[in-house]
Specification:
Elements: H1 16-27, E1 31-39, E2 42-50, E3 58-65, E4 69-71, E5 77-79, E6 85-87, H2 90-97, E7 101-102, E8 117-118, H3 130-151, E9 155-161, E10 166-172, H4 179-189, E11 195-203, E12 206-209, E13 215-218, E14 221-224, H5 227-236, H6 245-251, H7 276-292, E15 296-299, H8 303-312, E16 319-325, E17 330-335, H9 338-348, E18 352-359, H10 367-386, H11 407-410, H12 413-421, H13 423-429, H14 439-453, H15 458-472, H16 476-479, E19 484-487, E20 498-504, E21 507-516, E22 524-530
Helix pairs in contact: 1-3, 8-9, 12-13
């Protein structure tokens, strides 16, 4: 499984006491049903076990996640024959089940027991009891598989047959996966995965896999698939609601990859009127950083003064500059002609307090010279962020600062703050409709979009973008077009270069392109680059 497809499931962070309760129910020998779901309040996990004995109530244990895992003692309890739940704490529910363990499943008792069930409720589940340990070891392959199904968000049912000594798990593919992704799963594993089944046989006191009866189920017929491959399919096609939201929210990164360290604010920079001492401290840090990176200054923010300084030093007018502002913020830039570029900045910024300059004689007015400047500018912008400077740049910024042009009109400030706490969870609860575009506007891109859909990897690209939007972009349906857009679809007939680009607030954030591998295979691969990590401010 590739890094892009690797899943981090929410239940991997399940507290030990909840995990032990679920695992114990799966090991109890009672038929069980497991279900994971999401609603407006968070995540809900329910495990119901059905009593194999008449007159003994069924049981259910429920746990919820709303930022932290906990048992739902109001929903957990004993289930009567008419479906009514008598609330009990989870520990009491497990205690009830372990008073009625099928005797044929307990290794120390076996078929010699004269009763249908064995009372094991007074034996500790987590303190090394030999009977419990032996039972858990025997049932471990079945219970572990059931737990993995639940973790991935598949609706799973565990059934046992004492007459034939067999156990089977039947499961349905999660309902929140779209048809395109299901097709990708089918192609990846070479079969249609809608309903699957695992089966074991009890032989010589051990549960052994039954490979002939394990695989994909279609119209009642089993297409055999290996255990490990089938478990890979389960993880690959995990439910969207089973994904772990909190680490993704904290990392501000769609794939959870390593993000370069940055001291740019990770919370919204509120509108401010900094005190003179704060401004003085910021300007001091700008100066220290500029000097350490080879800049001279600060100079008066006059194009004429800057031009005279450069000419006097007999330097090239090409290079890099840092604008410092009256509030202690800064802007890092590059130009073939710094004085001319400063003229443009003065029409945009009215609060320039000074300018630092670092010329670069290796840059020329050629395309290569401009590329050279931009590459070094990128390094300088990253360095400024890592030094904790408040930069007004847009490109290469982990977090942009300044007043939003559209976001504040679309998303109230209190809702923005809530989104910062759990982006993916808030996005999943947003019911906003996408904006409606005119037929003329859609028609202009129709040919390119149709051509894009002919690509074999089109669905995979759409899925990557979809996951990124769900986890990293505030309320994507509401903010589409105003704050982000998909653009640059490849023109019909073109098979190399850029395929598509996700642009956020005028900045290319994610780009997909062809890359020809320079070896004898002449292979062409689709690659994608996440150009920067989105922070909280737009």
């Amino acid at each position: 499984m590739s890094d892009i497809e690797k899943r981090v499931f929410l239940m991997e962070s399940l507290p030990e006491e909840i995990g032990i309760a679920f695992f114990a129910l799966f090991c109890s020998g009672w038929s069980s049903r497991a279900h994971l779901s999401a609603d407006g309040s968070g995540i809900r996990v329910a495990v119901r076990v059905d009593s194999p004995f008449g007159g003994v109530d069924d049981s259910i244990v429920v746990a919820t996640y709303d930022g932290a895992w906990k048992f739902d003692d109001e929903a957990s309890g004993l289930v009567s024959s008419d479906g009514e739940v008598t609330p009990r704490e989870a520990a009491a529910v497990v205690d009830h089940v372990f008073r009625h363990i099928p005797a044929w499943l307990v290794p120390e008792v076996g078929t010699e027991c004269s009763h249908e069930f064995v009372d094991l409720h007074d034996r500790p589940l987590d303190e090394g009891d030999p009977v419990i340990d032996a039972m858990g070891e025997q049932f471990e392959p079945v219970a572990t598989t059931m737990f993995r199904m639940l973790m991935a968000g598949w609706d799973a049912t565990l059934s046992l047959d004492s007459d034939y000594g067999c156990a089977s798990i039947s499961a349905l593919v999660p309902g929140d996966l779209d048809d395109e992704f299901r097709r990708i799963v089918d192609e990846a594993f070479g079969t249609e995965l809608r309903s699957i089944r695992f089966r074991w046989l009890l032989q010589d006191g051990k549960w052994s896999a039954d490979p002939a009866q394990t695989g994909s189920v279609r119209d009642g017929v089993i297409e055999a698939i290996g255990f490990d491959e089938l478990l890979d399919a389960v993880a690959f096609a995990g439910a969207n609601c089973a994904m772990e939201p909190t680490p993704l929210s904290g990392r501000w990164h769609s794939a959870g990859a390593t993000t370069p360290s940055s001291h740019v604010p990770v919370s919204v920079l509120e509108a401010e009127d900094p005190s003179p001492s704060v401004v003085a401290d910021r300007l001091r840090r700008i100066g220290e950083w500029a000097v350490s990176h080879g800049f001279s200054g600060p100079l008066e923010p006059s194009p004429g003064d800057v031009a005279r300084y450069i000419d006097r030093e007999r330097e090239s007018r090409a290079g890099y500059y840092v604008l410092q502002f009256t509030d202690g913020q800064c802007y890092v830039g590059e130009s073939i002609d710094i004085p001319e570029r400063l003229k443009q900045h003065r029409t945009r910024f009215q609060d320039i307090d000074g300018v630092w300059v670092r010329t670069d004689s290796t840059a020329t007015r050629s395309i290569l010279g401009k590329r050279h400047l931009r590459l070094h500018e990128k390094e300088l912008i990253h360095a400024a962020q890592n030094a904790g400077l408040l930069a007004r740049n847009i490109n290469e910024m982990a977090t942009m600062i300044g007043v939003s042009k559209y976001l504040d009109d679309l998303v109230p400030s209190d809702e923005q703050r809530q989104w910062l706490e759990a982006p993916d969870l808030l996005n999943s609860k947003d019911g906003s409709e996408r904006p409606v575009f005119s037929e003329d506007r859609l028609a202009r891109m129709e040919d390119r979009f149709r051509y894009f859909r002919t690509r074999v990897d089109a669905a995979q690209i759409e899925r990557i973008i979809g996951h990124y939007l769900k986890r990293c972009v505030p309320f994507p349906a509401r903010t589409e077009h105003h704050c982000w857009a998909i653009s640059c679809l490849t023109a019909p007939g073109k098979r190399q270069g850029r395929i598509s680009c996700l642009t956020i607030a005028m900045t290319e954030t994610m780009r997909f392109s062809h890359q020809r591998v320079t070896d004898d295979s002449k292979d062409i691969r689709t690659v994608w680059r996440e150009k920067r990590t989105w922070g909280p401010a737009w």
